[in-house]
């Protein structure tokens, strides 16, 4: 796998991959190119023999400050189970601020490790805009806590998030990546077919999906067709007035 401009990627021999959003000067804000790089990196991870991915942000001040407003991304691209499609486990390791779209990314990951100083903040009600995918939070933690985070736009600390079931493990500041890697290595030693099956059953049959999730899934599916070799062949065959030879990819 190549090393993108905005990410650091490490692959370990035990089947664990560490993917770091490397924009510390911008509090790891997600730019348009960062969202695409995350989507492409996870697609490569899914095709590889690696078994578990840990997603984190550079430094300790922020997992991510959310969308980079100076270079707005299509955030659906880097959201697990929407733009990022893999049946392998994905763990988020959060330190400091986890804001906006970053909170959605953490919400949609399979497991989450956070430092004691982590703060989860969804400010869209204060900004007058929303993409709506945060609605899925109400399917993952108690309804009233989810509504508090969405409607009141108040930061929620790591301990409260842990008590609400949003965070799996709270660790001392600076130890989030180490703890997430330990969790990933535990998962990497378990039966991958069982993990994939359980994750698929949960995502397809247990968790509800809001309209924005469906939109993202539709966009991803249409892009597969739009970028396929078959589409290129079909258009070329039409121009050359011959029967197309489709290969299914």
UniProtKB/TrEMBL annotation:
It comes from the Bacteria. GO terms for biological process: fatty acid beta-oxidation. CDD domains: crotonase-like. Gene3D superfamilies: 2-enoyl-CoA Hydratase, Chain A, domain 1, Lyase 2-enoyl-coa Hydratase, Chain A, domain 2. Keywords: Lipid metabolism, Lyase. Pfam families: ECH_1. One of its GO terms (molecular function) is lyase activity. Belongs to the enoyl-CoA hydratase/isomerase family. This is Enoyl-CoA hydratase/isomerase. It comes from Paraburkholderia xenovorans (strain LB400).
């Amino acid at each position: 796998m190549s090393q993108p401009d905005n990410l650091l990627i490490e692959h370990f021999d035990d089947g664990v991959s560490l993917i770091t959003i490397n924009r510390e000067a911008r509090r790891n804000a997600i730019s348009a190119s960062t969202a695409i790089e995350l989507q492409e990196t996870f697609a490569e991870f899914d095709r590889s023999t690696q078994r578990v991915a840990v997603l984190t942000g550079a430094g300790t001040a922020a997992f991510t400050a959310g969308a980079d407003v100076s270079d707005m991304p299509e955030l659906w691209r880097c959201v697990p189970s929407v733009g990022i499609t893999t049946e392998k486990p994905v763990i988020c390791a959060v330190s400091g601020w986890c804001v906006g779209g970053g909170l959605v990314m953490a919400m949609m990951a399979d497991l989450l490790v956070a430092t004691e100083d982590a703060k989860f903040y969804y400010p869209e009600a204060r900004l007058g805009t929303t993409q709506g995918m945060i609605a899925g939070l109400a399917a993952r933690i108690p309804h009233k806590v989810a509504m508090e985070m969405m409607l009141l736009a108040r930061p929620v600390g790591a301990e409260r998030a842990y008590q609400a079931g949003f965070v799996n493990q709270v660790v001392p500041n600076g130890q989030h990546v180490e703890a997430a890697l330990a969790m990933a290595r535990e998962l990497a030693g378990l039966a991958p077919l069982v993990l994939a099956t359980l994750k698929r059953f949960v995502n397809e049959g247990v968790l509800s999906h809001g309209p924005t999730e469906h939109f993202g899934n539709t966009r991803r599916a249409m892009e597969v067709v739009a970028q396929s070799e078959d589409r290129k062949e079909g258009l070329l065959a039409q121009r050359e007035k011959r029967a197309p030879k489709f290969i299914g990819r």
